[in-house]
Specification:
By secondary structure, the protein is mainly β. It is built from 2 helices and 11 strands. The strands form 3 sheets. A 4-stranded antiparallel sheet has the order 4-11-9-6, with no helix packed on it. A 4-stranded antiparallel sheet has the order 8-7-5-10, with no helix packed on it. The model is unreliable at about 40-70 (pLDDT under 50).
Length: about 160
């Protein structure tokens, strides 16, 4: 069975992009893939969207799947923890608890750094090395994108 998406559903996805303040959104369902982004002119827009391009709200545009949002400058002496999914980042297990980690704290390999909520599932993000938290790039409760840098750790 072939998946179909109509113009109104595409507009809802574009509204979600604005609502969550995302620069890029990708969805793949049953062989149908759509990638929506804002800011840059698309290198190769998807055919299904070209009819809608003229009436996109708030400057949203399609982007090629390999284009991403610019991240912080990388340093070779740091290990970066990136988001494995699109979702909402939470720095603590619940609103009344302290954050899992703070800048300057020592962490151990496999220690929980944050939680990313994606599709009502809570996913723990763990440190891959022992070290010290040098930088935290995302604030609590903010949306994150796939591949977005979350933490910088100076390995021990």
């Amino acid at each position: 069975m072939k998946s179909k998406i109509d113009y109104q559903e595409i507009l809802k996805l574009i509204d979600l992009l604005d609502e969550r303040n995302l620069s890029r959104f990708e969805l793949e369902v049953e062989g149908f893939k759509i990638s929506i982004g804002r800011g840059e002119t698309p290198a190769a827009p998807l055919e299904i969207i070209t009819a809608a391009a003229a009436s996109q709200p708030k400057g949203a545009s399609l982007m090629a799947a390999n284009e991403g949002a610019p991240g912080p400058e990388e340093r070779e002496d740091l290990d970066y923890v990136s988001s494995p999914m699109v979702g909402t980042l939470y720095r603590a297990p619940d609103p009344s608890s302290p954050p899992f980690v703070e800048k300057g704290e020592t962490v151990k390999k496999n220690q929980t750094l944050c939680i990313i909520e994606a599709m009502k599932l809570m996913n723990e993000i763990e440190a891959e090395v022992d070290g010290v938290i040098e930088e935290i790039f995302v604030k609590n409760g903010k949306p994150v994108e796939y591949g977005q840098k979350l933490f910088a750790i100076k390995p021990a």
